[in-house]
């Protein structure tokens, strides 16, 4: 089936003194919108073109005159000092050590003895304020009556005096001696009024702008640099930068109790999304999200009153606008745009509800770190497109785009050619499947502490980056993002309060013991455990990957609280005196049919052993790595880890169908070569076979009713066929 040639659905960046070249690329790429970027301005002539104009709009940064006149409004956060060991009864802590003093400074304006906290970490005790003193000139705290050889820390309120994104761009692109943008806090009434007045003036002065691209609203995700100008702490989901004394007071009034500095510092973990969220932190996230939605709606209403669209960038200052949360719909946005790093982040954007359209910003960003002599932007673009394309076939974004300096990209003809291909192929896909429900063989529930609130966001640390202790699990998200299954994200609280939803065929619990994704202490709740046991026994499936349902150190004599469902448990070192006789691995099994052994478990999970009645499908070094276990009328399946690869994506699909006892339907709209995939759209009478590689591939495609056909694909090809095709 031929690709249709269309234009539009593409946003590209531009800059001053680049009018003619921009016009040429608009025509070549079929772009229908242009945008500015951080550090660029649109050429005046571009504003006369028949394309949509996006303008980046910063709400709470880039207004140093206001921030300097109102220093009390500068944004702040809680930070923890280095851990210092007392060697005597007096110890001095230089709490700013190893922090970047161009980014943060201590907040001495609000009484440190009221809003700071000194903690004896060895005894897990707060040091009385009468036992410590502050020397602001040296940024030190001195503790008296210290316990020798106890560790101490200072949790201090610090001001953010350099916007993290502007700082990152500044340091990355060597912008030199330009003023550092100071972020200010919308929590203050004078800041709220300034933000509204400034936006009204800007809207009146820029009548030609069609789309106001809020980048984003008020609070940046947590990004702190060290004294060597390197990243020290990053949490793309972190609420650390939302703290202020007015916020703490308002929280106490709304929620009825007062927060401590430790509620934010959290032993130095800063409530990362890997931590099982405390009740206090959940309450705080809810409190901030409601406030941000209320304030953002005011600005969106102003944009609409001016006859323009309001778009939000899913990044930078996006904290409090979680798009799967309860208040996002109240903001009234027209669109969301986000950065696409892989299939998972594509689905994170494309599945967002309550907006008219979504847009994905593809890589590479047109910055000198890629677009330089000897650089290979085409290679990065290919990888980015092929990984994201899998997810587009399940749920496309409505638009794609790029960001950065167009002048740089235009110097690479091969890259210009590849973007032409990407834009054309995206528009062709969209024209065929937009609004069409794709075939799904199963409905899968991903079970963790966050549930729907952080749909498609488990295992993210920094956006789209790989981490040693996460890649073995996040492969599950990447596989699911492009597979022929429906995916729902459920929290433990959802299960205990409402049971497992009726449409779920299989539950997946994946992650390391004690994390929010495995569940930690949530598994101490008998209601959670018994609800899932009864549900599996009734004929459903449970897939555990890594350390599912695990409580570190055991609980009630088990590490895996659903060990009876999974047929395996993890040795914690307490039952070494009890002999464990591993069942012999089965010779052939549906789960590994056609796969290349040994399987890749990433970092794997160690010390897991099987029960006598469990089917061991794979094992290594006296540790089981893949098992199946009948439980009542249902099944439990265990896997030691799943980094993303085409074969592992195929393995996961097998695990889910097997656990759900639907293996007889597995070969429906299915490709036997893991480097290829099938996406079917029965309502449109179409299906597509994808080659997800840059090499030729041959595969056998199973359609329905056992029918099959051999397909040979060119590199990166999508082969479209009609479902009524005669074989």
Task: Report what the structure shows.
With 727 residues, the protein is an alpha/beta fold. Among the domains are: 223 residues, Rossmann fold; 53 residues, Golgi alpha-mannosidase II (Immunoglobulin-like, Sandwich). Helix content is 26%, strand content 24%. The strands form 9 sheets. It has an 8-stranded parallel beta barrel. Strands 21-20-22-23-30-29-28 form a 7-stranded mixed β-sheet, with helices on both faces. A hairpin with a 2-residue loop joins strand 28 and strand 29. Helix 11 packs parallel to helix 13 and helix 14 packs across helix 18. The model has no long low-confidence stretch (mean pLDDT 95).
Shape: globular
CATH topology of the domain at 443-665: Rossmann fold
- What strand order characterises the main sheet? 1-2-3-13-16-17-18-19
Q: If helices are DSSP runs of H or I spanning 4 or more residues, what is the number of helices?
A: 18
Strand content: 15-25%
Helix percentage: 25-40%
Chain oligomer state? single chain
Kindly report the average pLDDT value.
95
Note the gap between the termini: 15 Å
CATH class of the domain at 443-665: Alpha Beta
Report the major sheet: 8 strands, parallel, barrel
Radius of gyration of CA atoms, rounded to a whole number:
27 Å
CATH superfamily of the domain at 443-665: Class I glutamine amidotransferase (GATase) domain
GO molecular function: 1,4-alpha-oligoglucan phosphorylase activity
Organism: Schleiferilactobacillus shenzhenensis LY-73
InterPro entries: Class_I_gatase-like, Glyco_hydro_b, Ig-like_fold, Lact_bio_phlase-like_N, Lacto-N-biose_phosphorylase, LBP_C, LBP_M
Domain Lacto-N-biose phosphorylase central: 444-663
